[in-house]
Structure to design on (427 residues):
């Protein structure tokens, strides 16, 4: 028997096991607050609403994020990369609420190198799950106030008219970025990656 | 050791749009996914092991004052990569319905009893050989609203991390010989019969504990293989 184990949907009832957040009699292994006391970098919040192909909010989605620390280092570096010197783990998990809303408190990631050594724009990678989704989807969160988006090698592979779906918009509130997720839509369907 | 993540491995996964599973119709992308190169951001990933697990998290029959109702079972096996090498010290999360096929989730209104002695959530980490073990209750089948007289085969949900963000997996483990298999659009969204078979655990008589619990074995194979494979 060879081959990987197939994916199946996270289903409608994962919250008590994966994102109990004190609503269920189970401990949380993860949270949507990644900020550790020693984390270096600009503290930010990324938040948004998740909507389906009809524009209805999705109250049973789970969003996971993975990112470098404020200085562009992952806690599990590939060979030859420096490890961070803080307790910052770079991983967060959040279930959407009944309004389809999710949020993460974190630090803005520093830039990390791309495959050819060229720097990527600061970004967060996202793994998206929901009821009705049989295999999770990968996307990225970029930031609207980063000039380096213009030269990011991943964004460059995305048709220009769709890039906006990957860019979290800086809010009037300090440190807050809005990143709505649309697993299905027309012009505003979020870009997902085949990786 | 450097791992690579061939795209071909992904062919076993269900298509996002699988209309027989009705909820996929409005929740799956209409536009094609965009092929991009793997970067350090994908080739790294959250690594969680023992620190994410509390003592007893792997025994779902001992989380409350009394014992849950139902058939006590052991579910054990290994977490492997595509070269069949163990994935050590990796987190395995589990959630499931109780013996009556009822989840404690507030949205589940199936008219079957909740069990005050069963939450249905567990966690374990693999050891150095990629081995994990849970003690739980065999979940019941339950009805759902997908189509008339729709029932899910009994299953346990699992969530795994592996070596990188690319090896992330959420799946469901089924039990051998379930008569509901032919009618379940979620199970059958996996089109390849061999791949479907990899979601079914096997009865493990050898590790059954006499007078106490039956045992089922289930191995997970996650994405990722050695960049420089051994010669065969």
């Amino acid at each position: 028997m060879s081959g990987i184990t197939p994916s199946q949907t996270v289903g409608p009832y994962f919250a008590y096991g994966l994102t109990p957040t004190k609503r269920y009699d189970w401990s949380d292994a993860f949270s949507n607050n990644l900020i550790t006391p020693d984390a270096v970098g600009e503290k930010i919040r990324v938040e948004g609403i998740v909507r389906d192909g009809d524009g209805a909010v999705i109250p049973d989605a789970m969003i996971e994020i993975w990112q470098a620390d404020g200085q562009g280092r992952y806690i599990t570096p590939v060979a030859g990369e420096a490890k961070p010197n803080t307790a910052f783990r770079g991983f967060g998990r959040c279930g959407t609420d009944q309004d389809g809303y999710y949020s993460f408190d974190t630090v803005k990631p520093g830039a990390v190198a791309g495959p050819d050594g060229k720097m990527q724009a600061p970004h967060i990678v996202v793994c998206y799950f929901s009821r009705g989704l049989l295999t999770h989807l990968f996307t990225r969160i970029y930031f609207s106030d980063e000039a380096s988006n213009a030269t990011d090698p991943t964004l460059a592979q995305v048709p220009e008219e769709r890039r906006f779906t990957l860019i979290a918009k800086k809010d009037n509130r300090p440190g807050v970025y809005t990143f709505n997720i649309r697993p299905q839509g027309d012009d505003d369907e979020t870009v997902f990656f085949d990786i | 050791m450097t791992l690579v993540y061939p795209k071909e491995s992904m062919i076993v996964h269900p298509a996002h749009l699988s209309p027989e599973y009705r909820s996929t119709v409005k929740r799956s992308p209409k536009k094609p996914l965009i092929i991009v190169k793997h970067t350090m951001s994908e080739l790294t990933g959250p690594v969680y092991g023992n620190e994410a697990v509390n003592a007893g998290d792997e025994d779902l029959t001992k989380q409350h004052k009394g014992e849950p109702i139902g058939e006590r079972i052991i579910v054990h096996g290994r977490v492997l990569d595509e070269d069949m090498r163990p994935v050590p010290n990796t987190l395995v999360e589990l959630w499931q319905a109780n013996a009556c096929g009822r989840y404690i989730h507030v949205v589940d209104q199936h008219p079957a009893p909740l069990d005050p002695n069963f939450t249905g959530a567990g966690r374990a980490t693999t050891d150095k050989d990629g081995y994990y073990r849970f003690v739980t209750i065999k979940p019941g089948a339950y009805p759902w609203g997908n189509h008339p007289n729709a029932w899910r085969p009994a299953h346990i949900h699992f969530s795994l991390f592996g070596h990188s963000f690319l090896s992330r997996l959420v799946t469901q483990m089924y039990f051998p010989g379930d008569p509901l298999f032919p009618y379940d659009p979620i199970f059958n969204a996996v089109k390849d019969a061999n791949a479907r078979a990899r979601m079914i655990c096997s009865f493990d008589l050898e590790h059954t504990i006499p007078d106490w619990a039956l045992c089922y074995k289930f191995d997970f194979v996650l994405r990722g293989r050695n960049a420089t494979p051994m010669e065969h």
Chain A has a mean pLDDT of 95. Chain A has one domain: 19-178. Chain A touches chain B through 80 residues (CB under 8 Å).
